[in-house]
Design a protein that fits this description.
- With 92 residues, this protein is of the alpha+beta class.
- It contains 2 helices and 4 strands.
- A hairpin with a 2-residue loop joins strand 2 and strand 3.
- Helix 1 (18-35) packs antiparallel against helix 2 (71-80).
Protein backbone atom coordinates (compact mmCIF):
# COMPACT_ATOMS: atom_id res chain seq x y z
CA UNK A 1 0.00 0.00 0.00
CA UNK A 2 1.39 3.40 -0.96
CA UNK A 3 1.35 6.68 0.93
CA UNK A 4 -1.57 8.87 -0.05
CA UNK A 5 -1.59 12.65 0.42
CA UNK A 6 -4.27 14.02 2.76
CA UNK A 7 -5.24 17.40 4.13
CA UNK A 8 -6.79 17.82 7.57
CA UNK A 9 -8.61 20.91 8.78
CA UNK A 10 -9.07 21.04 12.54
CA UNK A 11 -10.96 23.53 14.67
CA UNK A 12 -9.51 23.83 18.16
CA UNK A 13 -11.10 25.46 21.18
CA UNK A 14 -10.52 29.23 20.97
CA UNK A 15 -9.55 29.67 24.64
CA UNK A 16 -6.35 27.56 24.50
CA UNK A 17 -3.20 29.22 25.82
CA UNK A 18 -0.13 29.53 23.59
CA UNK A 19 1.51 26.80 25.69
CA UNK A 20 -1.41 24.42 25.07
CA UNK A 21 -1.42 25.25 21.33
CA UNK A 22 2.29 24.38 21.16
CA UNK A 23 1.65 21.12 23.01
CA UNK A 24 -1.22 20.22 20.67
CA UNK A 25 0.92 21.08 17.62
CA UNK A 26 3.67 18.74 18.82
CA UNK A 27 1.10 16.04 19.62
CA UNK A 28 -0.47 16.28 16.15
CA UNK A 29 2.87 16.22 14.36
CA UNK A 30 4.16 13.23 16.36
CA UNK A 31 0.85 11.40 15.85
CA UNK A 32 1.00 11.84 12.08
CA UNK A 33 4.72 11.00 11.98
CA UNK A 34 4.00 7.56 13.48
CA UNK A 35 1.85 6.65 10.45
CA UNK A 36 3.22 8.96 7.75
CA UNK A 37 4.93 12.30 7.20
CA UNK A 38 3.79 15.91 7.73
CA UNK A 39 4.27 18.02 4.60
CA UNK A 40 2.85 21.35 5.81
CA UNK A 41 1.43 22.65 9.11
CA UNK A 42 -0.46 25.95 9.12
CA UNK A 43 -2.01 27.76 12.07
CA UNK A 44 -4.64 30.08 10.57
CA UNK A 45 -5.53 31.59 13.95
CA UNK A 46 -8.90 32.40 15.50
CA UNK A 47 -11.81 32.71 13.08
CA UNK A 48 -15.54 33.24 13.48
CA UNK A 49 -17.58 30.08 12.99
CA UNK A 50 -20.68 29.87 10.80
CA UNK A 51 -22.54 28.27 13.72
CA UNK A 52 -21.74 27.58 17.36
CA UNK A 53 -19.76 24.41 18.08
CA UNK A 54 -19.86 23.20 21.68
CA UNK A 55 -20.99 26.67 22.77
CA UNK A 56 -18.17 28.52 20.98
CA UNK A 57 -18.71 31.09 18.23
CA UNK A 58 -15.00 31.20 17.30
CA UNK A 59 -12.33 28.56 16.82
CA UNK A 60 -8.62 28.21 16.10
CA UNK A 61 -8.13 26.75 12.62
CA UNK A 62 -5.25 24.38 11.86
CA UNK A 63 -4.52 22.97 8.38
CA UNK A 64 -2.17 19.99 8.04
CA UNK A 65 -1.04 18.39 4.76
CA UNK A 66 0.48 14.94 5.18
CA UNK A 67 1.26 11.58 3.55
CA UNK A 68 -0.05 8.49 5.26
CA UNK A 69 -1.01 4.84 4.78
CA UNK A 70 -3.39 4.47 7.74
CA UNK A 71 -5.56 7.59 7.94
CA UNK A 72 -8.26 5.85 10.04
CA UNK A 73 -5.80 5.53 12.93
CA UNK A 74 -5.11 9.28 12.82
CA UNK A 75 -8.83 10.14 12.65
CA UNK A 76 -9.51 7.95 15.71
CA UNK A 77 -6.85 9.83 17.66
CA UNK A 78 -8.26 13.21 16.55
CA UNK A 79 -11.62 12.17 18.06
CA UNK A 80 -10.01 11.49 21.45
CA UNK A 81 -8.29 14.88 21.80
CA UNK A 82 -10.59 17.14 23.81
CA UNK A 83 -9.02 20.33 22.41
CA UNK A 84 -10.35 19.50 18.92
CA UNK A 85 -13.95 20.63 18.45
CA UNK A 86 -14.31 19.53 14.79
CA UNK A 87 -12.11 18.13 12.05
CA UNK A 88 -12.23 16.83 8.52
CA UNK A 89 -9.64 14.81 6.61
CA UNK A 90 -9.77 14.72 2.80
CA UNK A 91 -7.68 12.91 0.20
CA UNK A 92 -5.77 15.27 -2.08
Amino acid sequence: MENIEYEAVLILKPDLSDENKSRIKETLISLIDTAGKVIKFEDLGIKKLAYAIKGNSTGCYIVISFNCKEVKKIERKFRTLEEIMKFIVVKQ
